[in-house]
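Section 5: illustrative case.
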């Protein structure tokens, strides 16, 4: 008798008609074979899937160039397909499941002809974790198969684990012919299924990531009483040797990865990394909130990554522990056969091909690396990997940070008055857009909890779910709003960011342990300047004050924008959120 898994694979193969089916076991040997296939057999147009790189300076590394139209998440082509539109909410594109299935079946019909279907069995989370989930993705490109080996715990043991169960998470993926007009990412929360076609890019194609670990998982968490969040997880070791675990939510390309592996500018402090993108949060047996990272790799933005901004990531990329590391859409230094991107250490190389393979001229407008070019690397390569990373029960969280990219208004750091106010801080978060998704860069958009593109159901219900989670916690984490991006009158960033962010984390750690006071403002509790460790920074006092400045006048349009945003959710928006909104309006006297 075929298992439900075998039956499902068989059905998808009948639809997509691959020349052969390859069941992956997740081994290194297999990954080496897949790289060989990508080097010599599979192609995008005339370009092989992989190119060799200088193995001395970039061990186990391979280069991948995407289809030119396929460089970011396609949010406008991403749908949640639940029969009830209201359940999906105004924060998502909605399509009826029947319509979506019909549309996709046409696109999938025969789409793998002549190609290999790879069956990828993988765990999100440690296999022994009560919070982990077993999943299988099908794909027709070696790049995705290899990437999934890096990003997830891929193993044939998952097949045994699934056994005769029908309720594993199912992902069907094909690059199709990369036609942007035939590109869709469809989510079926009721069936725990994702169907994606037409793109090989990260968030569109590595279905364990945003599609499953956030969109489907947020829905599962809503049903089952946990949270799937767009958050980094890190431990802050202080001079006492104590490690305090925190999470931080920030939109794509706002420095989450840098924060997760920050190299402390303050002596005696050290950051331990558990995750740079996704956290699954559960109420533990002791009533505290526990976080696991369902992934096992980093899919990080390359441009701007250097020994100065993120030395630990540079060390991770040049570590040769795990096979392989991938570079996608960076430039290529052809003299050395190395990846190159804007912001990398050292002199600009003489001969560079840009991310589309064309000779690049330094100094011009055009960038060599696509602004959303990425590396894909195992978390086990990280010199800062926390010893608790593989602990099946996760780590207990003491503080949660909500950040965004805001040139004005939002202080460097403020602490929520209580859990409910913290949920409001998360809900009112806005950020100036980046290149991680296909939209105009630099526009303000409200991005509650940095989950706008990833919350798989109505965000009004999501806020309510957060409020309920707080009620179940005996010792809830403190919640903070942070903003590294405030500018002065000349438009220059005031706060140096990167390794200096430890100064803000230090204050948060001291707050969590009741070791330092705070000053009340309409926006929340902020540090007394004397309590922030600023030595050696040389930021004049007036600039420091500017980082915390609250001008009620300037808040008027912001409050309007927040109100309009909240109103969209009608009676699904919890009254508690309006209570906090009204309290803020009153305090600001606006
Ligand atoms: O494309 S991904 O979603 O994987 C990366 C990101 O946008 O955060
Ligand atoms: Mn992300």
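Designed sequence:
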């Amino acid at each position: 008798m075929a298992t439900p898994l075998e039956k499902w694979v068989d059905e998808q193969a009948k639809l997509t008609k691959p020349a052969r089916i390859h069941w992956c076991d997740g081994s290194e040997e297999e990954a080496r074979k897949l790289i060989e296939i990508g080097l010599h057999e599979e192609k995008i147009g005339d370009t092989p899937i992989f190119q060799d790189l200088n193995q001395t300076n970039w061990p186990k590394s391979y280069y991948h160039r995407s289809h030119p139209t396929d460089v970011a998440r396609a949010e406008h082509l991403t749908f949640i397909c639940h029969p009830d539109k209201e359940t999906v909410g105004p924060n998502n594109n909605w399509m009826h499941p029947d319509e979506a299935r019909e549309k996709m079946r046409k696109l999938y019909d025969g789409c793998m002809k002549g190609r290999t279907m790879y069956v990828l069995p993988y765990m999100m989370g440690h296999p022994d974790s009560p919070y982990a989930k077993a999943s299988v993705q099908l794909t027709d490109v070696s790049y995705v198969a290899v990437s999934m080996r890096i990003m997830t715990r891929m193993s044939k043991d998952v097949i045994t684990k699934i056994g005769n169960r029908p309720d594993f998470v199912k992902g069907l993926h094909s690059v199709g012919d990369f036609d942007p007009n035939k590109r869709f990412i469809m989510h079926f929360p009721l069936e725990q299924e994702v169907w994606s076609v037409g793109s090989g890019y990260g968030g569109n194609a590595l279905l364990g990531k945003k599609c499953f670990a956030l969109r489907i998982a947020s829905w599962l968490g809503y049903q089952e009483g946990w949270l799937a969040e767009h958050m980094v997880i890190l431990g802050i070791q202080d001079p006492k040797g104590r490690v305090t675990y925190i999470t931080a939510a920030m939109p794509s390309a706002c420095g989450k990865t840098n924060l997760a592996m920050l190299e402390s500018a303050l002596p005696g402090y050290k950051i331990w990394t558990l995750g740079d993108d996704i956290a699954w949060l559960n109420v533990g047996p002791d009533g505290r909130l526990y976080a696991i990272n369902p992934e096992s790799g980093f899919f990080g933005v390359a441009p701007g990554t250097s020994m100065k901004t993120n030395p630990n990531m540079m060390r991770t990329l040049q570590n040769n522990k795990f096979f392989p590391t991938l570079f996608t859409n960076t430039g290529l230094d052809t003299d050395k056969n190395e990846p190159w991107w804007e912001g990398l250490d050292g002199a600009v190389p003489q001969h560079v091909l840009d991310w589309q393979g064309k000779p690049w001229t330094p100094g011009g407008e055009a960038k060599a690396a696509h602004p959303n070019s990425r590396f894909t690397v195992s978390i086990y390569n990280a010199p800062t990997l926390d010893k608790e990373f593989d602990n099946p029960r996760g780590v207990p969280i003491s503080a949660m940070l909500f950040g965004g990219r805001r040139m004005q208004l939002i202080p460097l750091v403020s602490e929520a008055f209580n859990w409910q106010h913290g949920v409001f801080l998360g809900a009112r978060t806005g950020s100036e857009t980046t290149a991680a998704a296909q939209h105009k860069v630099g526009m303000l958009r409200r991005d509650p909890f940095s989950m706008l593109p990833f919350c798989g159901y109505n965000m009004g219900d999501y806020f309510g779910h957060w409020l309920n989670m707080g009620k179940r916690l005996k010792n809830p984490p403190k919640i903070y709003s942070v903003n590294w991006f405030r500018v002065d009158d000349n438009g220059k960033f005031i706060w140096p960011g990167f390794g200096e962010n430890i100064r803000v984390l230090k204050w948060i750690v001291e707050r969590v342990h009741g070791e330092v006071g705070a000053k009340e403002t309409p926006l929340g509790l902020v540090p007394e300047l004397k309590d922030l460790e600023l030595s050696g920074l040389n930021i004049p006092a007036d600039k420091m004050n500017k980082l915390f400045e609250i001008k009620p006048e300037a808040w008027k349009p912001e409050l309007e924008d927040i109100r309009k945003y909240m109103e969209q959710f009608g009676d699904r928006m919890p009254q508690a959120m309006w209570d906090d909104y009204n309290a803020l309006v009153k305090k600001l006297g606006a």
